[in-house]
């Protein structure tokens, strides 16, 4: 997985990230958006436009953001 959508997106769902993703790897969940780890090409377009600074490269995530990585994996296992 390249990028992960974290806590600031929860219940926010601004959606600019969806519009700029060149591979349509961002899907809307019940409480936030999620990035599909199998489709993401690690371009960073979503990170640059996020108005709430919720998107991080997985290598730059803080420890408290790790649950959001797991939530994204579980979301796309459906």
UniProtKB/TrEMBL annotation:
Sequence ranges assigned to domain 4Fe-4S ferredoxin-type in this UniProt record: 31-60
MF GO annotations: 4 iron, 4 sulfur cluster binding; electron transfer activity; metal ion binding
Keyword 4Fe-4S: yes
Keywords: 4Fe-4S, Electron transport, Iron, Iron-sulfur, Metal-binding, Transport
UniProt key word Metal-binding: yes
Obligatory cofactor(s): [4Fe-4S] cluster; [3Fe-4S] cluster
Coiled coil: none
Role of this protein: Ferredoxins are iron-sulfur proteins that transfer electrons in a wide variety of metabolic reactions.
Protein name: Ferredoxin
């Amino acid at each position: 997985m390249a990028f992960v959508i974290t806590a600031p997106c929860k219940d926010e769902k601004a959606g600019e990230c969806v519009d700029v993703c060149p591979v349509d790897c961002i899907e809307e969940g019940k409480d936030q958006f999620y990035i599909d780890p199998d489709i993401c090409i690690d371009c960073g377009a979503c990170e640059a436009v996020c108005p709430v600074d919720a998107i991080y490269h997985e290598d730059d995530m803080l420890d408290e953001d790790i649950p959001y990585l797991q939530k994204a994996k579980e979301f796309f296992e459906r």
